[in-house]
Design a protein that fits this description.
Elements lengths: L6 H10 L5 E12 L2 H8 L1 H21 L3 E5 L3 E5 L2 H22 L5 E14 L2 H5 L5 E4 L2 H11 L5 E4 H9 L11 E11 L6 E8 L14 E3 L10 H11 L1 H8 L11 E5 L3 E2 L9 H11 L4 E3 L2 H10 L11 H10 L4 E10 L2 E10 L4 E10 L5 H15 L4 H7 L3 H4 L4 H16 L2 H14 L4 H13 L3 H13 L6 H15 L1 H14 L4 H13 L4 H9 L9 H14 L3 H13 L7 H9 L3 H10 L6 H18 L2 H5 L1 H4 L9 H18 L2 H13 L11 H15 L3 H9 L3 H4 L4 H17 L3 H10 L7 H13 L3 H13 L1 H6 L8 H21 L3 H14 L7 H15 L10
Parallel strand pairs: 4-6, 10-12, 10-13, 11-13
Antiparallel strand pairs: 1-3, 1-4, 2-3, 4-5, 6-8, 7-8, 7-9, 13-14, 14-15
C-alpha cells in the first residue's frame, strides 16, 4: 500500500536532497583563453565555436588523466584537484596541448593559468536547481579569488602558483616523469592583489622554450611589492642589516604551514616502497632503513610492521600480498590512530637515484608535503635517506636541534650493505610472524654479510633469549655492545637491559625502567619492565600502571599485554577487571595455557569454569609448561578439598619419575612437601622436615637463580616449622647471586627466611621489626603468616585476627604470586582456607564466638568435613567445642 505525500513531507524530501556543505583542503586551478573576443571576431561564430569545442575536449581529457574535477566553465575552466602536483601536471600538458592544437588548426590560441591551495567549502546543488541552470558543484572560499588573481596576473602561456602550491608541487616534482628535464621553476616575488589583505608570493613553473619564465607585469589589480631594502632612504641602513635579515625572511617566505596537527609521540604508518628502478635489493631494505631512521626519534612513533599486517588482515586482505598503498595505508592509519602515512618511492632519473617520501593525510588521502633527495649510485641511498629522515622529522614538528643531536647516519647505526639490510628486514618480518627458526637464519645471514651490523646482533640475541638459548644470546649481545659506535642510545640501552636479564634482575629492572621512561611507546620496554616488577618485586600496583601502556591499539602484541594485566589484577583481587582483560586477550586470538585466566575463577571458587578454561587452553609441550599445569592442579585440588589429588602428586614427582626435567620435578616435589607439612601431624612433620633438611642441594638449572630460589623455599619451610638448624644449613648452600642484591626476589625471600629463623630462636623483637619493614604492599604471603603467629604468641589476638583476615582475603594474590619459582602457590592457596580456622581461633581468644562460628561455617561450606586430613579434623573439633563452651588460646602452627 502506498501512502500519500503531504506538502510538508515533500518539502522535507526536497531539502534532504541538498548535500551538506563540507570544508576540505584542495587545489584550485583557473585557466583562461587570452583575447577570446578577438578570436571570435577573426574566425567568425561557427569556426570559433568549433575551435573552442576542440579546446574544451582537450582540457577535459587532460583533467580526467590527472584526476581533476571540472567546477565551472566560461572562456576557460575552473578545475579542482586533490594535490598541487596533479594541477601542475595538468597545466603543463594543457599548455603543450594548446601548442599542438595551434599547429594543427593554424591558430594562435594561448592561455594563462593560476594555481592555489587552501580550504574550500564544497557542496552539490540539488537536481532541481541544476535543471534550472545551476552548476552541479559549487566551490567557495578565499582560495577562489586568489586563484583568479593569479590567473589574471599571468602572461599568455604562463602558469603561476602561490607559495604553498609551489612548495607542495616542487617537492613532489619527481612524479612529473619525463617533463623534469625541461621543467623550470621561477620565483617572481610578492604581489599585492586588490581585495586580498596579505601579499602573495608568486611562482612560475613551465617548460624551457615554451613558458615565458619571467615576472608578470603590474596592473591596476595587482602590483609587485617593492622590498624595503630598495628604497633610497634606507639604502645605508639596509646594507648593515641585510646579512642578518635575509636568512629568516627567505625561510619563512618559502616554508608552508604544516597541514597535519602532528604532536609528540603521534604515530605514522610506513607504506610499501614504490620501487621504479627494477633493483630487487631495494625491496624491504629501504622501508627498514627509513623506519630505523625515524625510530631514532623520541618524537615520531612508527607503527610496527606486525600491527600493519594485522590491520590488513582485519580488512579481509592477504597481508602477504597486499601493498600498503595510499588507500590501504590511509585506512590502516585511521583504524590504528596514526596521524600520517609515509609513502617512499625510489626511481632512477637521468642517471641519478631519486628517493621521495610523501607525507599523506589519511583523512583526505592527499599529499601534505614530500621530501626528495638525489644521489649517484647505490652508495648514495643511505645518505639520501638520512637527509629525508631529518627533514621529515623537522616537518612533523620536531626541533631541529633535537634531530641533529639524536640522529646518527644509517650506515653507522644499521649497515651500508643493502643486501645485509634486506636480510635483516626479512628476518624482522619472520620474527613478527612467529617463525623464529627462519628469522634466526636471516639474522645470521645479515651478520655474515656485515659482521659489525650491531642492530642485527641485538635482534638475534633477543630471539635467542626467548628460546632459552641463553649462552648464544649472551654472545650476540656482548658483541653488539662491543660495537658501541654502531648503536643508537636506545639500542645500546636495549642490549644492556636484555643482557642484564641473564646476570642481574636488579640491573635489568633499572635498565628497563629507564628505557620505558625514555621510550613510552617502546612496547618491548614496557612489557619487560612490568614483568620484572611482578616477578622480581612482587609489585602488582606498579606493574599494572606500566602494563596499561602495552594494551594500546598500536601494539601488535597487546593480547599478551591484556593477559599480563589480567594476571596483575588477579593478584590485586580486582576479579572483574581481571576477567575483562583475559576476555580481551582471548578475543585478540592470544593463546596461553590459561593458568591465570582459570585462577580468576578458582579464586572465587568457581572451579567448574576454571577447569573448562584449562581444557580450552594451549596444550603444554615442554617441561616448564607441564610443571605449571601440575602445580596449578595441586593448588586447586587443595583449594577444593580434594586431598587425594592435592597430596599424591608430591609422591609421583620425584626426579626421573615424571615427564618433567630434573629441576622442575624437584620443585614440584617441594611444593607437595609444603602441603603435607601444612596439614600434617606433629610426628608426620618431623619425618618430612628430616627429608628437607638432609637431602642434597638442588641441582643447577638452565634458568638463572632457580637453584637458589629452591634452596630458600626449603629453608623457609624448615624455619617456619621449627627446624632452625637445618634452615641455617640450607642458607649456607646459597651461591653468591642470592647473597648479594642482584636478585630482588631472592633478597626478599632471604629476608623472610632470616626473620623466621630469628622468631624461632626467640628474637621476637628483631623478627617483628624486620617483618614490619617489609609491609609495603609487595611483601610475600609468609610475612603475614609469621606475623599472625607472633601476635598470637604475644597474646595480641586482635592483631593476629587482622593478619588472618588479610590472608583469607588475598586469594588472588595467593594464585598470582611468583615467589621461589611459583613453588609457594599451592601452599599459599591452602593458607587462605586455613586462615578461617585462625580467624575462629583468635576470635574465640577475644571472646567473639559468633565470629568463630561464622568462620567455621565458611570452612564447612568449602570443604567436606568427612574428607579432612586428621590434623584438620581434630583442629575443627577443638574449635567447635570452644565456640560452644569457652575460648581456647591458639596453638602455634596449627
Amino acid at each position: 500500500m502506498e501512502f500519500p505525500v503531504t506538502a510538508g513531507a515533500a518539502a522535507s524530501t526536497h531539502a534532504s536532497t541538498e548535500a551538506h556543505a563540507s570544508s576540505m583542503l584542495r587545489t584550485l586551478l583557473l585557466c583562461d583563453l587570452v583575447d577570446s573576443t578577438a578570436l571570435v571576431e577573426s574566425l567568425g561564430d561557427l569556426l570559433a565555436a568549433e575551435l573552442i569545442r576542440k579546446h574544451d575536449r582537450l582540457a577535459r581529457t587532460l583533467a580526467d588523466r590527472h584526476a581533476g574535477r571540472e567546477i565551472d566553465k566560461t572562456d576557460g575552466f575552473m578545475m579542482m584537484f586533490e594535490r598541487p602536483v596533479q594541477a601542475v601536471a595538468f597545466a603543463l600538458d594543457y599548455q603543450r596541448g594548446l601548442r599542438q592544437l595551434n599547429a594543427a588548426e593554424s591558430t594562435s590560441l594561448s592561455a594563462r593559468v593560476g594555481i592555489h591551495v587552501g580550504d574550500v567549502v564544497v557542496w552539490d546543488n540539488n537536481a532541481e536547481d541544476v535543471a534550472k541552470g545551476a552548476k552541479p558543484t559549487e566551490v567557495e572560499g578565499l582560495v577562489k579569488p586568489i586563484t583568479s588573481r593569479l590567473m589574471n596576473l599571468a602572461l599568455p602561456g604562463q602558469i603561476l602558483l602561490s607559495n604553498i602550491a609551489y612548495a607542495l608541487a616542487h617537492r613532489a616534482q619527481g612524479e612529473l616523469g619525463e617533463q623534469l628535464d625541461k621543467l623550470r621553476w621561477r620565483t617572481h616575488g610578492r604581489y599585492r592583489f586588490r581585495g586580498v589583505p596579505d601579499p602573495v608570493p608568486v611562482f612560475e613553473v613551465g617548460e624551457e622554450g615554451l613558458a615565458p619564465l619571467k615576472a608578470p607585469p603590474w596592473s591596476s589589480k595587482a602590483h609587485r611589492e617593492v622590498p624595503f631594502w630598495r628604497r633610497p632612504a634606507t639604502m645605508v641602513i639596509e646594507l648593515v642589516v641585510l646579512a642578518a635579515l635575509i636568512g629568516v625572511p627567505i625561510f619563512m617566505f618559502l616554508r608552508p604551514d604544516p597541514a597535519i596537527a602532528f604532536a609528540k609521540r603521534d604515530w605514522v604508518v610506513m607504506g610499501s616502497l614504490n620501487n621504479l628502478t627494477g633493483e630487487t635489493v631495494f625491496d624491504d631494505a629501504l622501508e627498514s632503513a627509513l623506519r630505523i631512521g625515524l625510530e631514532q626519534s623520541q618524537y615520531v612513533n612508527v607503527l610496527p610492521d606486525l600491527k600493519v599486517r594485522e590491520s590488513v588482515k582485519r580488512m579481509q586482505l592477504d597481508p602477504a600480498t597486499t601493498e600498503v598503498s595510499r588507500e590501504i595505508g590511509s585506512e590502516i592509519a585511521i583504524r590504528d590512530g596514526a596521524r600520517a602515512l609515509i609513502l617512499p618511492t625510489i626511481a632512477e632519473i637521468g642517471g641519478r637515484v631519486r628517493i621521495t617520501a610523501e607525507v599523506i593525510d589519511p583523512q583526505t588521502q592527499t599529499t601534505v608535503y614530500s621530501e626528495t633527495a638525489d644521489g649517484v649510485g647505490k652508495e648514495s641511498i643511505l645518505p639520501s635517506l638520512d637527509a629525508i629522515n631529518k627533514r621529515l622529522r623537522v616537518r612533523l614538528g620536531e626541533a631541529l636541534a633535537t634531530v641533529t643531536e639524536e640522529s646518527q647516519p644509517l650506515e653507522k647505526v644499521a649497515t651500508a650493505n643493502l643486501d645485509a639490510l634486506r636480510a635483516y628486514s626479512l628476518g624482522y618480518k619472520e620474527t613478527s610472524l612467529g617463525d623464529f627458526d627462519q628469522a634466526g637464519i636471516l639474522y645470521q645471514h645479515a651478520i655474515t654479510l656485515d659482521p659489525d651490523f650491531a642492530r642485527a646482533r641485538i635482534e638475534l640475541g633477543m630471539l635467542y633469549l626467548n628460546l632459552d638459548r641463553n649462552r648464544e644470546a649472551q654472545q650476540q649481545l656482548t658483541r653488539a655492545l662491543e660495537l658501541g659506535e654502531r648503536l643508537t642510545p636506545t639500542d645500546k640501552l636495549l642490549a644492556e637491559a636484555s643482557m642484564s636479564r641473564l646476570k642481574s634482575p636488579r640491573v635489568a629492572l633499572e635498565k628497563w625502567r629507564a628505557l620505558a621512561t625514555l621510550e613510552p611507546d617502546l612496547f618491548t620496554a614496557q612489557g619487560n619492565y612490568a614483568f620484572l616488577l611482578w616477578t622480581q618485586s612482587n609489585d602488582f600496583a606498579a606493574a599494572i600502571e606500566v602494563t596499561k601502556r602495552n594494551t594500546v591499539e598500536q601494539n601488535p602484541y597487546r593480547g599478551t599485554g591484556h593477559y599480563l594485566l589480567g594476571t596483575l589484577y588477579l593478584g590485586s583481587e580486582d576479579y572483574a577487571q581481571a576477567e575483562q582483560q583475559f576476555e580481551k586477550s582471548a578475543a585478540l586470538g592470544t593463546r596461553f595455557q590459561n593458568h591465570m585466566y582459570a585462577s580468576v575463577f578458582a579464586a572465587r571458587r568457581n572451579f567448574k569454569r576454571a577447569h573448562e578454561l584449562l581444557e580450552a587452553g594451549r596444550v603444554s609441550t615442554n617441561s616448564s609448561d607441564k610443571f605449571q599445569d601440575q602445580l596449578l592442579a595441586m593448588g586447586m585440588a587443595a583449594d577444593e578439598g580434594n586431598w587425594t589429588a592435592a597430596l599424591s602428586p608430591a609422591e609421583q614427582s620425584h626426579p626421573g619419575n615424571s615427564s618433567l626435567d630434573e629441576s622442575d620435578a624437584s620443585m614440584l616435589a617441594d611444593a607437595g612437601m609444603a602441603l603435607k607439612l601444612a596439614v600434617g601431624t606433629r610426628d608426620g612433620r618431623k619425618d618430612l622436615l628430616g627429608q628437607l633438611g638432609t637431602g642434597a642441594a638442588p641441582s643447577e638449572s638452565s634458568q638463572p637463580s632457580a637453584r637458589e630460589a629452591q634452596i630458600l623455599f626449603r629453608a623457609w619451610l624448615l624455619a617456619y616449622y621449627g627446624d632452625v638448624k637445618a634452615a641455617k644449613q640450607r642458607l649456607e648452600q646459597l651461591a653468591e647471586p642470592a647473597r648479594g642484591g642482584d636478585y630482588p626476589a631472592l633478597s626478599k625471600l632471604r629476608a623472610l627466611v632470616e626473620a623466621t629463623v630469628a622468631a624461632r630462636q626467640g628474637q621476637t623483637d628483631k623478627a617483628a621489626q624486620n617483618l614490619k619493614s617489609m609491609l609495603d604492599g609487595t611483601e610475600y604471603f609468609g610475612t603475614h603468616l609469621l606475623l599472625m603467629e607472633m601476635h598470637a604468641e604475644r597474646k595480641d589476638f586482635a592483631a593476629a585476627l587482622n593478619e588472618a583476615r588479610w590472608i583469607a582475603a588475598h586469594r588472588g594474590r595467593a594464585y598470582a604470586s611468583t615467589a621461589a619459582g611459583d613453588s609457594f602457590m599451592p601452599f599459599n592457596v591452602l593458607q587462605t582456607n586455613l586462615a578461617q580456622l585462625h580467624i575462629a581461633e583468635n576470635a574465640l581468644a577475644l571472646g567473639k564466638a559468633d565470629i568463630a562460628r561464622d568462620a567455621l561455617g565458611v570452612v564447612r561450606a568449602n570443604w567436606k568435613e568427612k574428607d579432612l586430613p586428621d590434623s584438620l579434623s581434630a583442629w575443627m573439633k577443638r574449635l567447635d567445642a570452644a565456640s560452644g563452651e569457652k575460648a581456647a588460646e591458639p596453638s602455634a602452627r596449627n
